[in-house]
Design goal:
The protein is mostly beta strands. It is built from five helices and twelve strands. It is elongated. The chain starts with a strand and ends in a 67-residue tail after the last helix.
């Protein structure tokens, strides 16, 4: 069985002269993914990057990491702008019935009577809620918050998502007219199909996966943190 990888960070800059990199966090579990001794890999590569130092940046977003295999600023330069992946074990990393974000992309969304409303084309996060962007159906593009009052069946492994379109109020949705959404970060899955998304549990920020809809509702007021600034200056 092929291994599953998750994209958990992107190298945004270098710090100091000893190979420390500053990363944009693309995981809900940085304390786990960036723990000392944990091994990351450049996206699509096999070279290990063993974490020997890790700390959240005090004066801005992101974390600073140092790897055993990277001993100098020159060596770290090759990692600039690289996405970093971790290997995960589905049996221990996912709760029963859970799926990773990339596994939900392309899944068909149907109404209670079986009508096709579109398929999941994108995923973004607002506060603690996951929002699926559904496209390709007769009602045009719409946002689907994953909450129990709306999502009645969530089974991406079977290619099945069933929603209550009455509660979702799709009757007034404009056809083929995208709805405005808050600005967001890059979708958290590999650009080249070699990695997978590090998502989050629906309605909660406790697990690196999409699980089942919660009783809560999407909070559409909060926007994600801004992109980090370009690389740090040397110490």
């Amino acid at each position: 069985m092929s291994e599953t990888r998750l994209v958990v960070a992107r190298v945004r800059g270098l710090h100091g002269l000893h190979g420390v990199v500053r990363v944009e966090v693309l995981t809900d579990q940085p304390e786990v993914r960036f723990a000392v001794g944990h091994v990351l890999h450049p996206e699509g590569g096999t070279a290990p990057l063993t974490i020997v130092e890790a700390a959240a940046v005090d004066d801005g977003p992101g974390w600073r990491l140092r790897f055993a295999e990277v001993g100098s600023r020159n060596a770290a330069e090759s990692l600039r702008d690289a996405y970093l992946e971790t290997v995960v074990d589905r049996a221990t990393d996912l709760e029963p019935g859970a799926a990773y974000w990339h596994e939900v992309i392309g899944v068909e969304v149907r109404g209670l009577e079986g009508q096709v409303l579109g398929s999941v084309a994108d995923i973004y996060r607002v506060a603690t809620a996951e929002i699926f962007v559904v496209r390709g159906g007769s009602v045009g593009e719409f946002d689907l918050p994953l909450v129990k009052s709306i999502v009645k069946v969530f089974a991406p492994e079977r290619g099945e998502i069933v929603v209550d379109e009455v509660v979702l109020d799709l009757a007034g949705a404009p056809v083929d007219e995208p709805k405005p959404r808050p600005p967001r970060k890059r979708p958290r899955w590999s650009r080249h199909g070699k990695g997978a998304a590090e998502g989050a549990s629906i309605g909660a920020a406790s697990a690196p996966a999409v699980t089942t809809p919660t009783e809560g509702s999407a909070d559409a007021t909060a926007a994600p943190a801004p992109e980090p600034a370009p690389g740090d200056a040397a110490d």
